[in-house]
Amino acid sequence: MRELSEAAQELLERLWIAIEEEGRPGLEVRDPVGSDVDELMEAGLVEAVRGRLVLTPNGRTAAAGAIRRHRLAERLLADVFAMGDRRLEDHACRFEHALVDGAEERVCTLLGHPRVCPHGKPIPPGECCLKREETVERLIAPLSDLRPGERGTIAYIHMDRSPVLQKLLAMGMLPGTEVTLLRRFPSYVLEADRCQFAVDEEIAAAIHIRLHRGRGPAKRGRGEAGEVPPHR
Questions:
Q1: 229 close to 222: Cβ distance less than 8 angstroms
Q2: Cα separation of the two ends of the chain
Q3: Domains identified in the chain, total number
Q4: Is the same domain home to 70 and 144?
Q5: pTM for the whole thing?
């Protein structure tokens, strides 16, 4: 299949969001039909059903890929280039079309196989996520993947349970906070702002860290790693 135009890829993204995330039956067919619709129909990716444009099985795969590239681009721009929401969408729309010929999987691995975009929307997994391939050195990784002594700053937290997320925020676990992993067992013990905290594996997996490379293990804070003072 020949490469789709940017307009056609953006229409695939709109269809994915409408059908898969908003639960709508599809998008109303425009009259007259635009060139982007013609392009997708000729490629066998969409069809008109009862006056609505819907995805074919091949179209659903293509749409998931388009959404994945867009949200990975957002994640890269937000986490690596620290770009704010005001410019994020426009730049991501332009950048996503460059994630071809294997670049998509390398970026995904670099970012630690993120599951959500900066706006909390799911990123469809790719083969690299299913295989958890580590062919390039990661810049972002879950706290649960760190070794004792490794440090970094919190890039984002992906946690569906609101009470737990609120507790983490109350503990000062905010994006930009520098943390060091002190111990992995029997719980994950981390140090942030000279305080030590113990979290379970589920919470450690939800805290994504922008890794600091080239630094040795951090010095101990108050007490040894085995002594975790209560948080006040």
A1: yes
A2: 59
A3: 2
A4: no
A5: 0.69
